[in-house]
Amino acid sequence: MLVRPFASIARPRAGLCAGRLASRAHHNRRYIQTATVTDADIQRLAAKPLHPLTLADLCKHGRPPLSTQALFNSANFTLQILPSRLAHRIQSLRALPYIVVANPNVSKIHGNYLHSLSTLLPYAERKIETLKDEIDFTEVMADLVHTHSNTIEVLARGFLEARKYISPEEITRFLDEHLRARIGTRLIAEQHIALHFSSQAHKDLSSDHDHFHRTSQDSTYIGVIDTALKPATIIRNCEATVGEICELRYGVRPSVVLTGDPDTTIAHIPMHLEYILTELLKNSFRATIEAGMEKEPIEITIAPAPAAEEEQRSSDSSPRSSTLSTATQGSTPSTASPKIRPLDLSTPGVTLRIRDRGGGISPSVYPKLWEYGFTTFNEDEMNDKLAGGGGAGGMNALDVISGGAAGGSTLAGLGYGLPLGRAYAEYFGGGIAVQSLWGWGTDVYLSLRGVGRVS
Fold it and tell me: Which of 184, 333, 378, 444 suits 421 as a labelling partner, its CA being 20 to 30 A distant?
């Protein structure tokens, strides 16, 4: 059965959000063409080397509005790398103990990946060369984003129910790999959806040319990437959000003082940085207030890396910068995936240091700093948190705002915020490191890499 394109897609508004498209794709799933996925398909696709995605890859099709050919190139690039990524996820799930995969929740995620791969197979042996095919393909991307929006929540419940058959260490290893893969898969799909709505081809089909011109003129965005992202602006936005929650819960809110170079810009993904900073500020605000130090400001230093240092960092085989490597006392660094690579030598970067007077981190907590906390909860605690319980074992009000780029807040308060935040930072060659002075305070170093100069 062929895809029935949405009428609204044929005449899109440039500002229509991908979320609305995803919702419509979900309701029209029965019209999306699928193909049967065989074990041979999975083995063949999983045998292909994974493309080491970079931010530069996502910008290479040029600034919007994209020409028709550039839009086709974006669609074909997306189609070129997504099927093998989905096949790798299916194989990874199947490598879990059989009794774990048989759990209804884990089995549901396995089925979701099979479904998404089945929607891509009809396009796998051909190129997208018409606007109709591109429109249909964009619906497939929207369906993919919607299908996997609650993957981590469902997996967490499945691992809880099957915890007798899989160790916390195995869960952590699986989720480390799975979260990083999910970041890339979702980002590739969302990038094409965003480029679709800002393309010249769909401007020509739009009945509202003036609206399209207003929304695309002088934009610094290439898809979901802001090529002139100002970390200081994101910091202030996150400060306001976290501060309001603190004021409601505690009656006070610490202040944030920006130092360094607040005018620094970098090409990066705003929703990723918002998630990371929200998580880090939430932790700093809570520690500062609970230590009775709310009158002491939280100091955030914005430090763009000199070009010479960037070249040195890029020549280092480790994804962590020299700055970060000296600041990881007590933390457990993750193993960098060989499928993730840093950007070009000329890529500018920035390091943010978040310094608080919240008393530091207990030495007993350090070994667990990067673990997924829910792997150590008992069943009653886990069920209470997944149900949004508000008692002593339930969610803290601050935890509710941790959903963000993770795709929802149902897992808020389960201790996955820091590991996921670090996954977002490390995916493109950055990182998070922690330096604690027990009894005094904590310094957190967030390193980001950009895409360099984008013409």
Answer: 378
